[in-house]
Amino acid sequence: MVFETPRVDSLPLRVAIIGGGGTGAALAWDLALRGFRVALFERGEFLSGTTGRHHGQLHSGARYASGDPEIARECMAETLALRRLVPDAIEYNGGLFVALDGEEAAYGERFAEACAEAGIPAREIAPARARELEPGLSPRVERAFLVPDGTFDAWRVPAAFLAGARALGAELRPWTEVVGFDASEGRVMAARVRDRTRASEERVEADYFVNACGAWGASIGALAGLEVPVTPAAGSMLAVKGRLCDMVISRLRPPGDGDILVPQRGLSIIGSTQRLVETPEGLLPTDGEMEFLRRSGAELAPAFADAEVDSAWCAARPLFGAALDEAGGRAASRDFAVLDHESRDRVAGVASVVGGKATTLRIMAEKAADLVCRALGVERQCRTLETAPPSWRQLYRGRVP
Amino acid sequence: MIARLSVARGEDRVELEVEAPAWATVLDALEIATSKKGTTEARRHGGREKEGEGQKGKEEKGTGRGREWNDVDVLYRHSCHHGSCGVCGALVNGRPALMCRTPLRELPSGVVRLDPLPYATVIADLAVEPGPLFDSLPGFGYLRPPAREELPPVPDPAPLPLAPAERPRERFEDCIECGLCLAACPVLVPRMPEGSGDTVVARRAFVGPAALGMARREIVKNGSGSDAALALAAAPDGVAACDRAFACSRACPRGVAPGRLIEELRRS
């Protein structure tokens, strides 16, 4: 498929995005398609924070159906959208929810009803059929449901959006860290950014600023005197060598730790754990987490127990909310919000995107861009549902520093 | 364990010393060393931080203050931390490797030497612009068969087929487009005597192992309908430019074996 640069009706308005993760990438693409002049600042390489470390489950929403039907609906819609927009970055093999004990089997009724209510086509199949489809599955399976989950490449999807934004003239600046904001009369006027390749600082003016820093959002907000309710939570993952399944295998129970097995190329990844942390920086799994993940993986697919460990790593989730429950934030919603700091904090010209998850990156960007339009009094519709971005390979083609 | 890293900074080097778990990778150690906490000792060389310090002491105007700078600000590319994105390539003790797939305990004890991949232009420290890699890659598809069915247009809420289990499975190609094969190739990056200061210039025009490996995969997947792949292989900078050193196959972190794929192209 050849990418044809979409025609854009340019606006004389500049929007600065802070953060080059999944949200910032999708937002740059969305705003550029609406005609804004976009500048994006990322302190490291693009996608080096949370997004790239995602295990890659493309959520149908089944995981959230009984707890949060709205998120479940959103996931289903976004799965359909992403599969159409970036098909080359998605393995669409479906998912299985499996019960390994009586309690989980009993949860099946509620699960099936919730999926139906959220518009997610879940279908029960016999345990024997499930093991026929996925021979690596535990023989203990008591019930199984097929759902439209998938695996996606958590680097290539957002990289494609960044490539699209650049093709439309967006100024994308990795290695550039925002170190402060200048405000005047209750409005953020400029950001001060530091180019880490030269250790030089400059002042960047824009008509609007969006904090898309995910788990780093609170500290970036603090630079503008804003309280941004994001709590970083460390999510550890463990990959073993060998592809133990083609579908995403999940436990038939409410979302918790160690309950998703995701195939990724020649690896099988068990995800994940969750613990609240003070800083999203430099996170590593603990020994206890790795042992727990190893056991959890083996419960779903027995071969996981003896497979050679490939890698263990940790990602900083951006949980929406400052005060969270004691259970490590699992009860915290995986929903997202776009915070208008003009109405919340009487600071105009800036918004923060908080919470969210990789599957919903496009819709997060759409809502954020809608707010930018309202704040700047511009009527421009979202175009990301009908415009496919170029290949992720385009992001670095023809680039000489 | 204490990890000691020596990171290239242009002609100079930055030495880092950091406490890391016994199973940690080179990338883990680098990340701990450059995040806000964790650096147990860091000695600085080169000029960048000195300029940075000037900024540090400056009275800040505006509404906030930047995060505290690390003692050492080292630039390196990374993303997935599990060998899937292909971003964190570097020369580890002189050999092309993904830092996230190089456990410290598998390296000889002592200082770990880190240098940027030689096929690409250095931005700073270990960070490179991987443009030459992506310029070399053709626009072939990325999934193994089956070909994807057409999907419904946006306003149609019809769900995707529920049970793709009934059709053949989709799987990503193994190549993660990391560029290690280019960095290892003696045609693209001739070995220079240490400290000779010679600029690395390809010995001849060569599209490289990554692109040719993809061309072979494309022919395997799509058979006779692969004219573009065949043309790529038959061009003067195609298979004919390969020296059969197989350094690409040894460097590949995902077992793609581009050298073997190039041999298959030669025979096809």
Description:
The complex is a heterodimer of chains A (401) and B (268). Chain A has 401 residues and is an alpha+beta fold. Helix content of chain A is 27%, strand content 28%. Chain A is built from nine helices and 21 strands. In chain A, strand 16 and strand 17 (267-271) form a beta hairpin. Chain A starts with 13 loop residues before the first strand and ends in a 25-residue tail after the last helix. Chain B is an alpha+beta fold and 268 residues long. Chain B has eight helices and eight strands; from the N terminus they run ββαβαβββββαααααα. Chain B has a six-stranded mixed β-sheet. In chain B, a hairpin with a 2-residue loop joins strand 4 and strand 5. Chain B is globular, with a radius of gyration of 22 Å. Classes of the chains: A alpha+beta (401), B alpha+beta (268). Chains A and B meet through helix 2, strand 10, strand 11, helix 6 and strand 19 of A and helix 1, helix 2, strand 7 and helix 3 of B.
Secondary structure elements and pairings:
The complex is a heterodimer of chains A (401) and B (268).
Chain A: E1 14-18, H1 22-34, E2 37-41, E3 57-58, H2 69-85, E4 90-91, E5 95-99, H3 102-117, E6 123-125, H4 127-133, E7 143-147, E8 150-152, H5 156-167, E9 171-173, E10 176-184, E11 187-195, E12 200-205, E13 208-211, H6 217-223, E14 230-241, E15 248-251, E16 260-264, E17 267-271, E18 275-276, H7 287-300, E19 309-320, E20 336-340, H8 341-345, E21 350-355, H9 361-376
Parallel strand pairs in A: 1-2, 1-13, 2-9, 5-15, 13-21
Antiparallel strand pairs in A: 3-8, 4-8, 5-7, 6-7, 10-11, 11-12, 14-17, 14-18, 14-19, 15-16, 16-17, 20-21
Helix pairs in contact in A: 1-5, 1-9
Chain B: E1 2-9, E2 12-19, H1 26-34, E3 39-43, H2 48-57, E4 89-92, E5 95-98, E6 112-115, E7 121-124, E8 127-129, H3 131-136, H4 180-184, H5 209-222, H6 227-234, H7 247-251, H8 258-267
Parallel strand pairs in B: 1-6
Antiparallel strand pairs in B: 1-2, 2-3, 4-5, 4-6, 7-8
Helix pairs in contact in B: 5-6, 5-8
